[in-house]
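User: Predict the complex.
Assistant: Input components as received:
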Amino acid sequence: MSDHVHPAPRRHEVGLWILLAALFAVPTIWGLRLVLNFALASYFCFPGTVRHYALPGWTWPTLLGVDLVALAVAVLAALASWRNWQRTRDEAAASDAPVIELGEGRTRFLALWGLMTGVGFAVAIGFDLLALWIVPVCA
Amino acid sequence: MTVTEYERAPEIVAEGYDSATAAGLKALWETEPGIKGWFSTVDHKEIGIRYIVTAFAFLVAGGIEALIFRLQLAGPELHLLGPEQYNQLFTMHGVTMILWYAFPVLTGFSVFLQPLLLGTRDMAFPRLNAFTYWVFLFSGIFLYVGFALGSVPNAGWFNYTPLASRPFNSGFGIDFYALANILLGISTTLGSINFVVTILRERAPGMSINRLPIMSWGTLTISVGLIFSMPSVSLAFFFLWMDRRIGTHFFDGSGETQPLLWQHLFWIWGHPWVYAIVLPAISMISQILPVSCRRPLVGYTALALATVMTMVLGFGVWVHHMFATGLSSMALAFFGAVSILIVIPSAVSFFGWIATIWTGRPVLNTSFLFCAGFIIVFVIGGVSGFMTGSVPVDWQLTDTYFVVGHIHYVLIGWNLFAVMAGIYHWFPKMTGRLLDERIGRWNFWLMFIGFNVGFFPMHISGLLGMPRRVYTYPEGMGWDTLNLITTVGSYVFAIGFLLLIVNVVVSRRRGAIAGPNPWDADSLEWSTPSPPPPYNFVVIPAVASRSPLWEERLQAPENRSSIGEGMVLDHGKEIAATSAIDAQPEVILKMPEDSILPLLTALALTGVFAGGLGPMWWLVAASAVIALALTCVWLWPRDRLAQTARPHP
């Protein structure tokens, strides 16, 4: 047992905290963005019992700003994960078998997850950005 | 207990299941025979099977309710049931299937399988595991006691206010549902915590996060999700109960109350719950399919991430159940976008399965047939979900039978078909005997044909304008034939399911002996005898790949998993705790023995909720005091479990 190879042979090259930060930052900011923009876009249409059809002037730029910040975080996290993935590229060499999926090493695995998460959520946030131009706020 | 006992280096040995060490472990872990042992066992395998059997009992109850009201809807203007009886039956059907069958049955599989998949000997908190089962059982009994007494909820499974509020709904039916739901929520939350700790801290050495069995990703994901979402619905039902029995005004429509708040609180839980009852099932398919196709799962990394991301995105779609409530269009656009984007991780899973089948050599047994059937209905249910995720389409379809068709494709298709595949796959591990394949094929084809004949026409009924939740309908609307076909299909489906029960009863006694690994599968549970001994593994295995039992044939490098040689851990009931990310051994844990305390505490807790019906405050107070006292006894620190301060040398 003692001669088993550690599942993350390149763990010293990329810290666990940067792997996890890049992975968790994007879903977190996406969730916060959704709740904040939902509240902004809803409340000012129904501040009381009467429906409003126009928002205060600062609302639309705020919605846009929140989306852009979230998009920036997603892109930065994806770039950081890309860098982590590149730095651990030879962790895959630990598995020299062509057929079996040994798992490409824990470090590389988490970096790849971070990359896919960053890109995926950037697309999701981009979808909502489009809505700012094509959907009337309080229709 | 000495310092050596706490901090000893575990002995590494090679031992088999017929060794003296195995006999010693059996004596340590075995449940005492007889009634006392039955009520006090904490063996995860026994508890897992109980979960599955109990959930199936609720499935049968909910199914009978459906079969009765499908007769009512078989033709126009029928009067087998009155409107109120119809309301009660469809509510009980929905509540039973969604809350007391669909999730608990998956919990049963996870409770039975997770320790075996992870290479450990029990759940992290065995007594808590028993407690969550008993609370689940008592919550369901509590609900059906109300049914037997004529206090039946009648406002649908999502129980919208103010319809469910006391001014519009007197009697105790809603209260039984509210209190039973909170009780079930306690069981679900505690069970989720148990799964998270088990999966993060009890994996076999070497089973790093990238080697986690794909089924464990499903259980881990929904467990984390439920820890965040369950408080929302428990709070909603608690507020509703206070409105009804104490006189508060959260939802009842009077003055400044907020009936729409109910929908938010309900669906913030409700949509993650939908994923909770499908993601473990999806992961079961991902676990079984590679075995049937004789090759590792294609795209493990992407499929595991897709599972997690589905749950994350699932927290951002709750408003798509409220598209027709008049919220602002921009808000609807946010949730509509997520509801459509969530198709992407589902598509990743779909293409992973197709590639696994395409590049593998499928063995066409019953388990594979149910996997294949699952994939077909997965697509149909996914497409109809995509349609209702679009705001303008949803405005046309909401509250029609189209939505009923969609939910049945999701809940039966994505849950029951996977569960059926799971039963045919793991029944040999649970019992030591194989299910009959000939009955199994009849079982599959009747269920598959009955399901599609029964539920696909619901989509068309909905498109033709048939509203949901009507106890009858007039002639000449164009719905007559479709409803008759739906009723016939549902009965064919029920007959197909009956064949499973026949198969289980027959095969339990006369099925072929399975042996340890009848499917030549790749994961750790198949390295144990069938059924597994009380201690699961003689020695704790060490893992070096995702397919520890297939390494030789897949030409893995020399560094291979160690199945028969490992830590023996036999100084009492012991397991190894490993690190959360890399699964490196960290400490030896002492596990508790069997106890009647979980059962007694669950009974006392049920008493608290039963007292809430009146409310009978004396019963609430007495039960709470008893529950608290039992909890103190249960949790009192003990030397034997290494819970007291360590003695100095």
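Chain B touches chain A through 51 residues (CB under 8 Å).
Let me know if you want any component modeled separately.
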